[in-house]
Amino acid sequence: MTEPVATLEDVREEYGFLEGDDRYRLLVELGRALEPMPEALKTEATLVRGCSASVWVYPAVRDDGRLHFLADSNAHITKGIIALVLLTVQDRTPAEILSTDIPDSLAPFDLKTQLSSNRTQGIPNMIALIRETAARYAA
């Protein structure tokens, strides 16, 4: 039996109690909990540009029209960051994703202060790719 996926609120609450290395560990755990992404989907087309580590994001449309994203990274912290980003949009309709202020949802995590600029530089690109995908499917 699989564990239920944590909500963004659950993670935000836990993160707030933690400091330093424990926050890193939480991000790594989030990354490990991501649904596995098949190697065949890790292509140039699914690669997020501008990240210091390799990050791949692949969208799938569920039967009910909601978007479900698969993601992976070759770096543990970065994989945790994309997992955190996905918690804001996973299994939502394209319209819901477009109306979600993803940076605002992530603001309580204060990632720019908590992590090096190398680790956070790709976050806007991850968000942009997700929003562009939602816009494509909303059209």
The biggest sheet amounts to: 2 strands, antiparallel
Strand segment tally = 2
Count of individual domains: 1
Secondary structure class reads mainly alpha
Given the C-alpha coordinates, what overall shape results? globular
Helix content estimate: 40-55%
Measured distance between first and last alpha carbons:
37 Å
Q: Identify the quaternary structure here.
A: single chain
Count of helical segments? 8
Give, in order, the helices and strands.
HHEEHHHHHH
Strand fraction band? 5-15%
Question: What can you see in these coordinates?
Answer:
This protein is 50% helix and 10% strand. The protein is mostly helical. The protein has a single domain (8-138), classed as Sufe protein. Chain: A (Alpha-Beta Complex), CATH 3.90.1010.10. Strands 1-2 form a two-stranded antiparallel sheet. Strand 1 and strand 2 (67-73) form a beta hairpin. The mean pLDDT is 90.
